[in-house]
Amino acid sequence: MTIYTPPTTGIAQQLSPFGQQPKRWERKRSRAVRGGHVCCSSDCAANCEPVLLRERTGWGWIDWTVPADGSLPEHPHRVAVFTPIATRPQRLALRWLARRPAHWIGLGTVTVRSATIVVTAFILMAVALALINGVPLSIVLPAAALAPLLAEHLPDRLDARAGESARIVETEAACRYLQRLAALHTGVVQAAVSSDRHEVRRAVEIGHHQLFDTADLLQRHDTRSASSELIARERLMLRLAAQTRQIAPPTQGDVAAVRNDRFGGQPPLGPYPPGPRRWPQP
Fold it and tell me: What is the pLDDT of residue 39?
């Protein structure tokens, strides 16, 4: 039996960082290069942490690495998908979770958040002012000891609680696969901006559910063990994107954006979802 695959001409299959805002990527990259360590080669230490730029979306976020040679990263370092049925408290928690990644500072063999150092500096000044104004030491010391501990450990507790409403994948093959689905979903979302058709809005909802369910699947299985289900989901997203494109054709600006996207070509669907590229043996 032959499974129908809709035509994919003009439908982008990959996302590039801040695809519709290249200047924004350049600004963030320049800031990251000035303020952080960019992993460049095998010369870096084994525990080297790459500089990540977070691109927030309506359905989650994408963390991109910053290549030292100035090129664009080919695939995300991390992809997070929020639950599509979040309550108001969950949406607030997810907004907290999607904040800019914490900046860590090494102090010998220990690394602490930059926020902890800032809070500690303010606490020391507050303690000095309190003692000058005659505040008892028994009141000042507990508060001074508690504030840095909260600044260091409370964000992790909040992240863990908010993370229950998100699915985060970090393996290369899983990120590549979600990158493809996110590109298809982005096209549907862009069509919904310029269309008030119920079918288009419903397509956005279905696409978000597909992204979340796929991320949940990739958290529990690798791409090979879940290959058949992943390919079925990709075909569904392709069909959804093609139908949305027929209902709400892209504007001239959207067409130009797709044409200029360096990942705009359509790779064939293989027996497995996209993974690391394998070169033929000579």
Answer: 59
